[in-house]
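so my prof wants the structure for this chain in the tokens format not the other one, which i didnt know existed until like an hour ago. anyway here's the sequence
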Amino acid sequence: MAREVALGVDSSTQSTKVVAVDLATGETVAEGRAAHSGEDTQHPEAWWAALGEATRAALRPDFAVRAIAVGAQQHGLVALDANGTPVIPAPLWNNTASAPDAERLNAAADFPAAVGSRLVASFTITKLAHLARTRPELLATVDAVCLPHDYLTFRLTGRLATDRGEASGSGWWSPAEGRHRRDLLALAVGAETAERLRLPDVLGPDEPAGAVGGEAAGELGLPAGIPVGPGTGDNMAAALGIGAAPGEMVISLGTSGTAFASSAHPTADETGEVAGFADATGRFLPLACMLNCTRVVDTVATLLGIERDAALDRAGAAEPGAGGLLLMPYLAGERTPNLPRATGSVLGLTAASATPEHLVRAALDGVAAGLAYCVEALARLGVRAPAVTLVGGGSQHGAWRQAVADATGLTVSVRGGGEHAARGGAMQAAAIALGEPVDATIGRWRPPVVAETGPRPGMREAFRLDERRGLVERLKGEG
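here's what i got, hopefully its the right format
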């Protein structure tokens, strides 16, 4: 007898993951994965190829696939010609080339009031402005613009569609007003271009984007005609995957690090440290994001010639404070705090602290302190919680869990299910297949807590949070 499943996709900076969830139980019964380049500019065709590879790896002969939905990295700019072909490789969320364009746009309009977020180089509208400024001849060939998950949904269905969560990362869609702001788009590309560009339809949380077309079905090994969910951004999908309740704080540990919470009300932060996003349930998702998260430890481990898990084991065995070593983790600029031109730095290096254990511990401390900064940025807007749920690859290692607990002073927990962003896509697809609201599906299949870690008394001071804030202010002053 065939097992009915829904497929969920997480197309991230590093890879595409596909999970199959049993429609009867909510259990994840298969997974597939395919690597991306990991670079800050990637060709959308590579994501489609990876989706095919990961989907085929997740399928089993006894599966009856009933629906699919896509979660993906936020913000990247996908510019399509009239044939639906990408005009350029996509600059991603962590590509900071558009930082001057973000500054110009912020000077031209009150973006926090308009779309809930002060612009930084991550936002899609800044990347479009950068294209208009540097390659106007290419902009003239662009017929439509969308974000990464929108492109994959387009390839699946032939329809240019998105959801509130993904749209809220564009910089031209207002979560509070629920509409595209072409007047803001005009600031980036000019009034005439802003009017002619096609933008994705913005769908509700329970509204299908369409059905898998015949060509896409053949390439991915899927049944033609199955429904495709509206999809969403990766953080919104992760919130679905763990069944995040309103007010619940979530920290995602991946290539980027994010802290966010589901909220009934839209937010707007004049400083730009908290983005006023929408979520994938009809509510909102105030979010603070670091560009540099788990890859900081990975980079230091590679430098030292140590495998990732071994490096985390050694970092976890060392005390916070790293023997006086302090690492500022801005290896690729930074978004929170907004330091697009910053670089990483190491302070306090002595003969005693120049050891592999101290170096990997300093990297772990630097990221954990940055996440604590993000939690405090949310608290400024009244977004607080007594505990944190961790998601993302880093949540699986005890060193990350303890470091986040110690730095934030909050108890952290991890929920089962794994690959939470992909699982969130599967929850959305399952809701459509079952004909029920997505809130009902995720509430019924909320995974249980499988690990819990509390902060250790007196450890928070070792992260030197006040000293780090002083260094951040100095960096801001240097421009």
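also thought this was worth mentioning. The longest strand covers residues 63-72.
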